[in-house]
Structures are given as structure tokens and as C-alpha cells.
Amino acid sequence: MALRLYNTLTKKKEAFRPFKPKRVNLFVCGPTVYDWSHIGHARTYLSFDMLVRYLRAIGYKVFFLENITDISDKIISRAKKTGEAPRAIAKRFEKAFLEDMHSLGIASVTRYARASDFIPEIIAQVERLIRKGYAYEVKGNVYFRVRKFRTYGKLSRQNINKVSKFYKNALSGSGESEPVEGKEDDIDFALWKTSQPDEPRWKSPWGWGRPGWHIEDTAISEKFFGPQYDIHGGGIDLIFPHHDCEIAQQESASGRRPFVRVWLHTGHLKIGGEKMSKSLGNFLTIRELLKTTDPETFRLFIAQTHYRSPVRYTESLLSQAAAARRRLIEFVKRINEPSKTSQGDKLGTKSDIAKARKGFYDALADDFNAPKAIAAIFTLINKLNPSLEKHALPEASRLNALKLVKEVDQIFGIIGKVKRDATPSMVRKLAHERELFRKNRNWAKADELREKLRSLGWNVEDTPAGPKLKKTSSE
User: Fold this and answer.
1) pTM over 0.85
2) How much is the pLDDT for 475?
3) CA 465, CA 123: separation in Å to the nearest integer?
């Protein structure tokens, strides 16, 4: 099944066709480093990490570029509150962000690009926009003429003539549209700003200053990819005005359309029914989460919701993800054990595995439907577990299923290191038989087997993921 992705620009699923066959240039908006990263950020970065792993697994050579905004009004505002230098704040939280990404198992990014390392490219792009008449200078500030770019808002489907008040509020909230005497239009956004002596600043043709937020991304992506590339990703909240502004800048500077072939956006992560954000104060940092939750469980929790849908975060749902991962780990332990038979396929395991593999990859090819893909694997687990309990799965099928599980983990990173199960096979067999009695509500037989397990030195705990065996401590 050919890969199809939902393009925010066209509002429909489309067959994915990169500019160059089997090569993908992908840019994702990274963090503004003025505070700790929270799990709402993690939702976006994990989603794209998994997507890139998938693209590479099916044969694409992917250059995954992510920027780091280390120059912004938010950083300067935080510095004024704390008395710390803006660059020191940015450096500290950039380091923390990269450590958090490592802790989450995100290693797919080809290059992190810090905005302050690309000032010459930013200035050059602003100069081009001025030469082409799309930008103008006022008292050391440079602004983009929004109304001159006639298709502005085509990504968000905003009509600036009808919603100009909302538009101005959105831009001013990002610090890009302050009222300045001599500015041609209130809705024009900043490409370059004057800076105070105690703020980060660089020498430019318009005096000492610093870049606006939107221009950083297009200058960086153009440096690595040229004026056009394949995929741009980010959170849904960046569509307007940030991504609309990026389109206006790059297409005006280069004269080429489309700037980006496919736009992908992740849904919000909600906690307490609201979007998680620093401004609302309802956020849980990645570091706080990982004190009590392993990263593989959180990766599975994120993958169980389609990347475009909002994620509802609750302790209960996270616990369900943990239970699902335990089931997966138990399956991996069983499937790593050699089979007692090398022939026969009475239970149709060969066709079950083939069906699961097809279901898995077909789901991912359909706009990266991770929940449906993972469901196909758990359906297979349910079918194979009875044979695995008896070591009756044909060896060829066992190896084929093991290969599929490794492919799943290569893309999602939800298994982690699995220790070999040292539980004696007889003990596991008794626990399995007891579980069957429990499911049939034969409590007397179930209790009888529990006592037999105890006599052998094993306690059994009933969990949502199935029976959990623990060896009793010796006196």
C-alpha cells in the first residue's frame, strides 16, 4: 500500500511524492528554550520521531532538521524577571531539552539548528524580501507587507480582511506585531527588530538588532534544503500565524511554490480537559513524568492516539499503556524461547503473522495510523500466546513473529531491553492453566493451582496484563 499523508494545506490525504525519489527533507519546529519542556511538547517530538523511523524503515533516506529558538521575546522576558543573561537561559534550557529528548529515546533528528548560528542567512533573506518589495524598514525594524502576499493565510484558511482583529492579537501575542510609528499596516509582522544594549543583538544593515520569530525557520530550512522541501511539521497551534508567515516569507523570497509539499500537524495534549501549556500553568514536565514512568510506556501511550487527534492525559490511561506494554514484553519473552516443534502449522500461525504484518504496514501507510498498527500486533499476540505457552509454535513461525516484533520496536521504540524469563516452564504452564480457570469462573480450581504454585515457591498476582509470577523469598 502506497504511503498517504493528510496535508494541512489541502485538507485531504494525498499520495506522498517527495521532490526526489526515496529522499525526504523534513523540518519540524523545535522549542523556544526559556523553560523546561513539558509532555505536550513531547507529544509532537515523539510523533515525528516515530514517523521518521517508519520512513527510514520502508526505505526513505530522511534528513530530519529541527530548529532551536534561542532568540525570542520570551527568553528576554524571562531574563528580565530572573536577572540572568538571556543567552545563559537559552543555553541552559537547550541543554535540558536535548537531555530530555535523549531520555525519551529520540535519536532520529539529523541536525538540531540553533537560530543564533544562522544570523547571516537570516539577514540575507530579509534583504531579499526588501529588494522584492515584500518588506520595509522603520526605525531599525523590518516588517513584512502581509497584504502584498495575496494568498496569505492559505494554510490556516484565514481571511485577514475579515478577522484582522484576531490576526493582530495572534501576532502581538507572539511578539511579532508591536505598534510602531511609521508602520504601514498594523498586521505587518516583524522580520528584524531593534535590540537594547542588554539584549542579544547583531549588527545588520538596519542597525543593531535581532531576528523575528518566523524568519528564523525559513532562513534555516533554506540553508539546508533550498527554497522547497518535502515535509514541514509542528503542533497544530503553529498553523496560524507562524506557519502562514513562513509560507509568505519563503515563497515571496524565492518566487517558488509550494514552499513545502506536505504540512503535518499534531493535535494538542490535554490535561484536565484543557490544552497543556505553560501559560495555563497546567503542565507536567518531561523530567517529572520520567521519575515515575519509563519512556517506552509513554511512547506507547502517545502512539495509541492518532498523531492528528488530541491526546487526553490521565493517570488511568497511562496505567493502561503500562499494562499493554507488560503484555507486549511477556510476549517477547515467550517468543524468544525455542519451540519444541519445527513442523506443522495447524493453528494457521503462518497466515496469522502475514495478516498482522500486512495490517501493521497498511495502517502506517494510511496517514501513519499508529493506533491501528499497534492493534494489529496485539491481535496477533492474542492468537499466538496459547501456542507459545505450550512451546507448540513452529520454529519458522516463531522466528517470523520475532522478526515482526523487532520491526515494530524499530519504528515505535516501545519495548526496550527485555530480560530473559527465568521462570521454569512448569510454573508458567500452571499459571496459564489457572488463568484459564479464572476466565471460566472456576474459582475452586484456580485457587487449587494458586496453592500448588505457592508450594513450588511462587506467588501469582492477577493484573490487567495477565498473571504476574514472583518467586517467594527464602527464609
Assistant:
1) yes
2) 39
3) 57
